[in-house]
Design goal:
This protein has four helices and no strands. By secondary structure, it is mainly α.
C-alpha cells in the first residue's frame, strides 16, 4: 500500500469493478431463488458464470498487490534510509557543464545553400477541386 493516501485510493479503485459485479451476482442469486438450480432454471446460468469469470479476472491485480505487500517483494533491499543515517555520498550532475560539452562537440551548423529554396515563380501544387 505504501502508506500513502494515493495507495489507498488505488486499492479502492481496483475493487470498484469487483464490487459492481458482486452486486449483480448477489441480485441474480436473489432473482433465482438463492440457488444455482433456480438461476439456471430462469436462463441466467451463462450470465452468472461469465460475470464470475470477469470478477475473478478483475481480482488478479488487487490480489497480486496484496501478496507483494504481505511478502515485502515490492521493497528494494537497502532502499530504506533510517532517520539517523547519513545519506550516501553521491557525485553531483552539472547540467550546465553537460550542455556546454554537448555544444562544443556539436560545432557550428552548416549554412543552408540558397539554391535549396524553390524559386518564387513556380506554381505550388493544388489539392482539392481545381477551378479555372
Amino acid at each position: 500500500m505504501g502508506g500513502s493516501i494515493g495507495g489507498v485510493f488505488r486499492w479502492l479503485l481496483a475493487l470498484i469493478p469487483v464490487a459492481y459485479i458482486g452486486f449483480f451476482l448477489w441480485h441474480f442469486m436473489g432473482v433465482g431463488g438463492n440457488s444455482m438450480e433456480g438461476i439456471v432454471g430462469i436462463g441466467l446460468g451463462p450470465t452468472v458464470l461469465g460475470l464470475s469469470i470477469i470478477a475473478l479476472l478483475f481480482l488478479i491485480g488487487p490480489l497480486i498487490k496484496l501478496l507483494r505487500v504481505a511478502s515485502g517483494a515490492n521493497r528494494v533491499p537497502g532502499a530504506a534510509v533510517k532517520v539517523g543515517d547519513d545519506l550516501p555520498a553521491t557525485e553531483g550532475f552539472d547540467a550546465d557543464a553537460a550542455f556546454a560539452r554537448y555544444m562544443s562537440k556539436r560545432g557550428e551548423a552548416p549554412a543552408v545553400p540558397a539554391e535549396a529554396s524553390p524559386p518564387a515563380d513556380t506554381p505550388r501544387p493544388q489539392f482539392g477541386r481545381k477551378i479555372g
